[in-house]
Specification:
The chain has three helices and four strands. It has one domain (2-99): Alpha-Beta Plaits (2-Layer Sandwich), CATH 3.30.70.120. It is of the alpha+beta class. It has helices spanning 10-22, 53-70, 91-98, and strands at 2-9, 26-30, 41-48, 81-87.
């Protein structure tokens, strides 16, 4: 299993969310504010199987391109989204490492 943390430019947020849900991906949207990649971004948490990671990445790229074409926006891949991929099989290790009694 993989967990993708995706910081999405708000221009793409609604379209990307609908497209991913239509493809069967389950998304959690985090409401936040802060300075990471400046304002105007939304964070998605997306869990998927290892075999679906490539399909997820392709779908996200295609959805952004589709919106740019529809709205006649200039293509700017740098500001679409940034994603981080975490291997969830390490989750048990994270919990045991940071939740041990008496450890700072």
């Amino acid at each position: 299993m993989k967990l993708l943390v995706c910081i999405v430019n708000d221009v793409y947020r609604d379209h990307l969310e609908r497209r991913l849900q239509n493809e069967g991906f389950r998304i959690t949207e985090l409401a936040s504010s802060g300075g990471f990649l400046k304002k105007g971004n939304t964070t998605f948490l997306i869990g998927c199987s290892n075999r679906d990671v490539e399909h997820l990445n392709h779908t996200m790229q295609e959805a952004c391109l589709q919106l740019e074409k529809k709205k006649k926006m200039a293509r700017n891949a740098q500001y679409r989204y940034t994603s981080f991929q975490l291997n969830t099989s390490q989750g048990g290790e994270w919990l045991s490492r940071y939740n041990q009694p008496g450890k700072a």
